[in-house]
């Protein structure tokens, strides 16, 4: 058996069972060797059980609060109280350019150039803004591709957007599905669908990580498939941002959107993020919805009635950013910047592999793990499909202090996040899963 010190520094595609031990003291020893363990103290971990500390494994749904968010928010409130309108230019973090503070750390987080990202709006709003630009149905090229089983808000957005263009969503929105009886949608199935659609495909909106199964996708590979037929390619990264070590610029995708309240720990309804590839950001002739804050800041206060977009992702902004809502994002990104995504991803691979090791035999005939076994094809989530009494088994987990979530039909999602969860919590969760399977 390998020692903890040899496990944690090694990024592995497949974490070998021989690296792990099922005893509790091994989990505690992993925690003592974890150089990222200190970041747990930077968050307030919700305790939803009165008897014992909860194991918070729902960072894939709503991350915990960064402690610095409260202090930063109080500073903004103090500046508002003292300065009023003068805070736009004289606050300690001037409001006029406030969103620029999150630009560089956000770019580092998703593997982009600073001028390719912007924090704004919500994911679905940003998706509509991106579709306005990148979905341009013309002639035969009218199809909009999405995965079957995508998060409902994405389906709602695409179908309503197509309908607003005067097209029939039943005809022009195409859903690519896994093969019959399978849960996972393979990259080659998406490639085959792109080839089948050919010059009828206008745009694709594909997942970075599938929310229900936790399956991760190769963004560069899917982008190549979409581009090969002359279409535009975008991604929903709601479950990938802050989870996977993304490289958006290198992927060559056209656009991406994500929320910030899951793995980015920025609070319920947090300000979302958007990526626009440099080649598009510099093209100021692209169609778009325009707003004052997308206008070039050099001419913004000339109060012209003609929109002059700045040549970056900022051009897709509509209104001035909500300062009080951006504060938690800044607090969280500061922690990510210190921890770094490559190191977090390395820990995530080991942590998720450890959870799988501890529960796989215990599941027996009671459940199957839907999430791919390969580390390169998953983030820090394991989805368990219980074959009977799923709600009761889920309740057993919550009663044991394991804060996880349930999705129909009988799926329990466990997401040990490397930024604030511990290896001993993984051990506790595995023990509760074992009890639920008895």
From the 3D structure, determine the CATH topology of the largest domain: Aspartate Aminotransferase, domain 2
Rg result: 22 Å
What's the rounded overall pLDDT mean? 94
Helix content percent band: 25-40%
Overview of this structure, please?
- Helix 9 runs parallel beside helix 10 and helix 15 crosses helix 16.
- The two termini are 28 Å apart.
- With 438 residues, this protein is of the alpha/beta class.
- The protein has 2 domains: 157 residues, Aspartate Aminotransferase, domain 1, CATH 3.90.1150.10; 266 residues, Type I PLP-dependent aspartate aminotransferase-like (Major domain) (Aspartate Aminotransferase, domain 2), CATH 3.40.640.
- The longest helix is centred in the C-terminal third of the chain and has 23 residues.
- About 2% of the residues have low confidence.
- The strands form 4 sheets. The protein has a 7-stranded mixed sheet with strand order 4-10-9-8-7-5-6, with helices on both faces. It has a 4-stranded antiparallel sheet with strand order 11-12-15-14.
- The chain is 37% helix and 13% strand.
């Amino acid at each position: 058996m390998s020692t903890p010190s040899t496990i944690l520094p090694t990024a592995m595609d497949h974490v070998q069972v021989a690296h792990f031990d099922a005893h509790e003291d091994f989990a505690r020893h992993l925690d003592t060797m974890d150089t990222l363990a200190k970041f747990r103290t930077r968050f307030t971990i919700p305790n939803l059980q009165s008897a014992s500390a909860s194991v918070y494994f729902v960072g894939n749904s709503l991350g915990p609060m960064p402690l610095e968010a409260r202090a930063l928010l109080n500073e903004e409130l103090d500046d508002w109280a003292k300065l009023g309108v003068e805070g736009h230019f004289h606050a300690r973090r001037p409001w006029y350019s406030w969103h620029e503070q999150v630009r560089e750390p956000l770019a580092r987080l998703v593997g982009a150039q600073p001028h390719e990202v912007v924090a704004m709006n919500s994911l679905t709003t940003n998706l509509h803004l991106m579709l306005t630009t990148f979905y341009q149905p013309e002639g035969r090229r009218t199809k909009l591709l999405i995965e079957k089983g995508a998060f409902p808000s994405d389906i709602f957005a695409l179908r309503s957007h197509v309908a607003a263009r005067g097209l029939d969503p039943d005809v022009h929105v195409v859903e690519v599905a896994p093969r019959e009886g399978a849960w996972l949608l393979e990259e080659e199935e998406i490639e085959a669908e792109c080839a089948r659609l050919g010059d009828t495909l206008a745009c694709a909106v594909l997942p970075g990580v599938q929310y229900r199964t936790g399956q991760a996708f190769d963004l560069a590979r899917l982008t190549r498939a979409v581009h090969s037929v002359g279409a535009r390619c975008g991604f929903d990264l709601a479950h990938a941002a802050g989870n996977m070590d993304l490289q958006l610029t290198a992927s060559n995708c056209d656009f991406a959107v994500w929320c910030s309240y899951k793995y980015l720990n920025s609070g319920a309804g947090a300000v979302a993020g958007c990526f626009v590839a440099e080649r598009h950001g510099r093209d100021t002739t692209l169609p778009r919805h325009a707003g004052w804050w997308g206008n070039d800041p050099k001419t913004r206060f000339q109060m012209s009635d003609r929109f002059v977009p700045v040549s970056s992702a900022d051009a897709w902004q509509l209104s001035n950013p909500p300062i009080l809502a951006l504060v938690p994002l800044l607090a969280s990104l500061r922690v990510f910047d210190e921890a770094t995504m490559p190191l977090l991803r390395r820990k995530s691979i080991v942590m998720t592999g450890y959870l799988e090791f501890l529960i796989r035999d215990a599941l027996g005939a009671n459940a199957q793990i839907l999430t791919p076994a390969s580390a390169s094809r998953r983030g820090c989530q394991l989805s368990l499909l219980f074959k009977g009494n799923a709600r009761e088994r889920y309740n057993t987990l919550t009663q044991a202090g394991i804060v996880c979530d349930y999705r129909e039909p009988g799926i329990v999602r466990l997401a040990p996040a490397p930024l604030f969860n511990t290896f001993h919590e993984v051990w506790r969760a595995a023990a509760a899963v074992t009890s639920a399977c008895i």
